[in-house]
């Protein structure tokens, strides 16, 4: 979704560097408005004609969904193996040969770049498995919203289902386009709907976050940070979820209705006080962007850990990757 500026760099090189006869590239345009369709049709007519490249457009999304978009792309394939490749990822030369070799050695593999030794964070979403195994676990969990942890969750459920994790750990296969968080959150609900963020640093490793959204919903949470934690994420959220409710402004007060009780806070300049809180509005643009990313990362981390603790292997019981797409071919 609106990643043409990345695909212009990665796609030509990726197509040129993977030459197995059975290798196919599928682009899912998740309602982009940046000229992606025109670029694909103009730049790759030969690849589209010969089936090396497929282009499909899903025109029904206002916001980007990492899980649904990947699931939808997977349902459009008929190949025995699938590999998710984010728009900002370079495969490196002969990556398709690398995958074939690994699958021949490990028939029940889930091949992933998660926690690669080079710590190339932008490649963490790279994941390959047999399509039938992907279907067995229900694909990516579409209960995840926004950015973060849908890849950890899928790999974890595949491992729980008896598959072997094989690491992508060759530097040549881990190159990415470097970019800031703006690209990661630009088409997300939180970024679009956040009205105000209030923050209170309680101790060195504890803070309170209050997200007020334009639709007058709100999310509140007490966040703890453990610098010594040997886990995927050093943050934890009290109650393992955001507390949700509604808010409204009344004069110099903000009235918040939580699940079960109401609270009144008084606005004093940039501060919001009351109920043993003294929160300050966040005005720094970079910190706001980080908080938008953190909002879904934290919620998705909690869902990932819950799925893991409950040994939940199959998700999306009512189906996944649903939606009508328009396909473009050149004959």
Considering the chains and any ligands shown, give keywords for the structure.
Spore Coat Polysaccharide Biosynthesis Protein SpsA, Chain A; single chain; alpha+beta; 331 residues; four-stranded mixed β-sheet
What do you see in this structure?
It contains ten helices and 16 strands. Strands 7-8-9-11-12-13-14-15 form an eight-stranded antiparallel beta barrel. Strands 3-5-4-6 form a four-stranded mixed β-sheet, sandwiched between helices. A three-stranded mixed β-sheet has the order 1-2-16, with helices on both faces. The chain is globular. It has two domains: 175 residues, Spore Coat Polysaccharide Biosynthesis Protein SpsA, Chain A; 125 residues, Beta Barrel (Lipocalin), CATH 2.40.128. The chain is an alpha+beta fold and 331 residues long. A hairpin with a 2-residue loop joins strand 11 and strand 12.
CATH top level assignment of the largest domain = Alpha Beta
How many strand elements? Answer: 16
Low-confidence stretches: none
The radius of gyration is 22 Å
| Annotated CATH architecture of the largest domain | Alpha-Beta Complex
Structural class: alpha+beta
Instruction: Estimate the global geometry from the Cα principal axes.
Output: globular
Round the mean pLDDT to the nearest integer and report it. 94
- CATH H level, superfamily name of the largest domain: Spore Coat Polysaccharide Biosynthesis Protein SpsA, Chain A
Compact overview of the structure:
The chain is an alpha+beta fold and 331 residues long. It has helices at 4-17, 36-43, 45-50, 66-75, 95-105, 131-136, 150-160, 181-185, 189-193, 285-309, and strands spanning 25-29, 53-57, 81-84, 109-112, 127-130, 164-167, 194-203, 206-213, 217-225, 235-237, 243-250, 253-257, 262-268, 271-274, 277-281, 326-328.
């Amino acid at each position: 979704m609106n990643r043409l500026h990345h695909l212009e760099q990665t796609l030509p090189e990726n197509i040129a560097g993977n030459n197995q006869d059975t290798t196919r590239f599928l682009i899912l345009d998740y309602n982009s408005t940046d000229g992606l369709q025109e670029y694909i049709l103009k730049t790759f007519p030969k690849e589209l004609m010969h089936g090396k490249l497929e282009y499909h457009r899903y025109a029904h999304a206002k916001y980007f969904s990492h899980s649904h978009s990947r699931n939808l792309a997977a349902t459009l394939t008929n190949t025995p193996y699938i590999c998710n490749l984010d728009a900002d990822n370079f495969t490196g030369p002969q990556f398709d040969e690398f995958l074939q070799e690994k699958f021949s050695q490990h028939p029940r593999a889930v091949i992933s770049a998660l926690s690669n030794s080079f710590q190339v964070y932008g490649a963490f979403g790279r994941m390959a498995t047999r399509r039938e195994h992907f279907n067995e676990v229900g694909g990516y969990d579409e209960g995840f919203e926004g950015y973060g942890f849908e890849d950890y969750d899928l790999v974890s459920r595949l491992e729980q289902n008896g598959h072997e994790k094989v690491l992508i750990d060759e530097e040549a296969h881990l190159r990415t386009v470097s970019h800031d968080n703006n690209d990661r959150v630009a088409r997300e609900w939180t970024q679009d709907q956040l009205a105000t963020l209030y923050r209170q640093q309680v101790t060195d490793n504890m803070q309170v976050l209050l997200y007020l959204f334009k639709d007058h919903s709100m999310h509140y949470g007490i966040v703890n940070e453990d610098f010594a934690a040997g886990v995927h994420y050093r943050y934890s959220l009290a109650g393992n979820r955001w507390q949700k409710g509604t808010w409204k402004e009344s004069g110099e007060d903000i009235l918040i209705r939580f699940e079960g009780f109401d609270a009144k806070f008084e606005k004093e300049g940039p501060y919001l006080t009351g109920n043993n809180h003294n929160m300050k509005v966040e005005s720094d643009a970079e910190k706001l962007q980080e908080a938008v990313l953190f909002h879904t990362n934290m919620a998705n981390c909690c869902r990932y850990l819950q799925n893991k603790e409950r040994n939940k292997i199959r998700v999306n019981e009512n189906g996944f990757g649903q939606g009508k797409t328009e396909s473009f071919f050149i004959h």
